[in-house]
Amino acid sequence: MIGLQGEDTRRHPVSDLWRRLRIAAVVLISVLLAGTAGYMVHGLSPLDALYQTVITVSTVGFREVGGVEEVDAGYKIFTMALIMIGAGAVLYTLGVLIETLLEGRLTQEFWRRRMERDIDGLEGHVIVAGWGQVGQAIVTTLSDEGDDVVVIDRSDHLEMPDTQLRVFGDATEDSILAEAGLERARALVVALDTDAANVYVTLSGRAANPALFIVARANAPEAEAKLYRAGANRVVNPHRLGGSHMAALVSQPHVTDFLAITMNDRELAVSISEIRVPDGSPLTQRPLADCDLAGTTVLARRRSNGTFEHHPPASTRCEANDVLIVLGTDEELTEIRSRVS
């Protein structure tokens, strides 16, 4: 969308170079075919005509083949024209080929095609639109959690790990979202620089995949309501969130540090995680006191209607699609996930 994010730079330089190389190859093959046909008209056999064409366009300068001793004016004019056109076609093809090899374009193209195959094989992955500071932090956290992440960004000169799956293009274009596997993704994180672009991508994502969980970035307070109307499940204002966090560090530094470490420090012995109770789980319709929670502590329960129950009592009976917010070690969290399912 040019109107939202400036000039359209969807086309990748590698694609441009391969397009030029294909055009050059077509031109060269056409010259060879035309030259062969022309010499056949002048009495040469197909093989001799092809041989004469090749030595002519390559300007090798061998003698005429096929038993031709004296050539007429038409033969000479055709040969001169073939030399002029054919030499140009050969030089152009060689120039593009050398440029491709010297700049490593072939390797990049093979890498890009392998990247496309890897993305096509994903399902239940997360798409992050925007590779700014916010997007990089999101990708790092999600990757640490073990999620498959595909990044969409308009720039093809991004400093990111070679193993990071990515799509170069404008995220506001439906084709780019489809290339990132939108219909198979479980979540979309929209972290572009402008609210207009974020609203547009949110609309596109919700229309293409109604079951998609969308988290959108709002740069201005008035954009939050628009993003919710566009279909976002959650809207985050990084400026407001950062300000609230800084204020909390002043008023309750120890609580804030504990929560930050618990949520983000992978080396910590315990962490907070959410456990969804599926239909038919052993936890449904049983008091928490009678359930084996693998040593974890239930901090809260979110009912299927969206309301929270903090520190639920032991008599609480979970229902299908409830979400338990629990505190425990990695081993305990793994165990309770297994038991809940």
Explain what the structure shows.
- By secondary structure, the chain is an alpha/beta fold.
- The protein folds into three domains: 13-102, Helix Hairpins (Orthogonal Bundle); 123-236, 3-Layer(aba) Sandwich (Rossmann fold); 269-340, Alpha-Beta Plaits.
- It is built from twelve helices and ten strands.
- The chain has helices spanning 2-5, 13-41, 46-57, 73-102, 105-120, 133-144, 174-179, 195-208, 222-230, 238-251, 253-264, 330-340, and strands at 126-129, 149-153, 165-168, 187-190, 213-217, 234-236, 270-276, 297-302, 308-310, 323-329.
- The strands form two sheets. The chain has a six-stranded parallel beta sheet with strand order 3-2-1-4-5-6, sandwiched between helices. A four-stranded antiparallel beta sheet has the order 7-10-8-9.
- Helix 2 (13-41) packs antiparallel against helix 4, helix 8 (195-208) runs parallel beside helix 9 (222-230) and helix 10 packs across helix 11 (253-264).
- The model is unreliable at 1-12 (pLDDT under 50).
